[in-house]
Write a structure and sequence with these properties.
globular; about 350 residues; five-stranded antiparallel beta sheet; Rossmann fold; 2 domains
Amino acid sequence: MAKITLEKLRHSYLPNPAGAQDYALKEIDLDWTDGGAYALLGPSGCGKSTLLNIISGLLTPSEGRVLFDGRDVTGLPPDQRNIAQVFQFPVIYDTMSVYDNLAFPLRNRGVDAARVDARVREIATMLELDGQLQIRAANLTPDSKQKISMGRGLVRDDVNVIMFDEPLTVIDPALKWKLRSKLKELHQKIAVTMIYVTHDQTEALTFADQVVVMQDGVIVQIGTPVELFERPQHTFVGHFIGSPGMNILPCEVTGGGARFEGHAVALEGPVTRTGALTEIGVRPEHVRLADDGIPAVVHKAADLGRHMVVEAHVGDRVINAVTDGPAPAQGARVHLAFDPAQTRVYADGWIATEVTR
């Protein structure tokens, strides 16, 4: 296990990058503590896999350093970093039994047979594979094969970090929750540093203690799932996390306050700066249908079981509101009220209000 430090990392796939637009990774400084559970979250093309490949040693960064427990490993190949990786598609030997698949990484390192047997059975029990040890891997279901792939990383006790690159993409949706829960349980038992790379917010938020959200090669926020949901530091985080995502509405800023479509909007605190683009951010969970407020027209409503999501229009702007009561009919005229404690201004994408409560 190791503390992982990324120090002033930048990477471009071009031989002579001319500017920031030529970098797949902008400057990144990051610390992951020993034994933590982390997620790299963002859409395709945001730089997640590039960063993962740099940490694993498959890619050398254009600039900056990678350190494991303070030791510079930037120039070391993967086999000298003691890293285990679990990929989107299970990496196993179909002709081998489950037992031999799990034993292979240890046998390959010359571990004695008694230790191999003890470790294989320990990990197989954790993964609920102990009843399948003598079955050929080719005869197993996709989720069991992915368990073997996970087990091949977990069976070693000399790894600095285990990295999961979209490991549940090919798993049946009904089994994803079970495997995510199992992975979380395993982390709590063995306390090895784990990094989980995904574009799926549910996977990231249910696995990780700390989530790193990336956009266009930049880390826009690092925080717990609660922090990311309750106070996004960037409009991208608000939009990307949550279903539906945060309402992002253009506004005018005057005298430390904000106005939307001519209506004054109460905020969590004063606006501390402005930019070329200023916007209000408020989650649908903090928008309610009220007797007074901003006039709107209901466009449609979706029944999600536990609550309704009402889509209302203010001019040509769309605002989503979550309500537990019955939804107004399409075309109904309503008023929308924002919870001031959960309403904030963003300037050029970044949060620009201070909390005064």
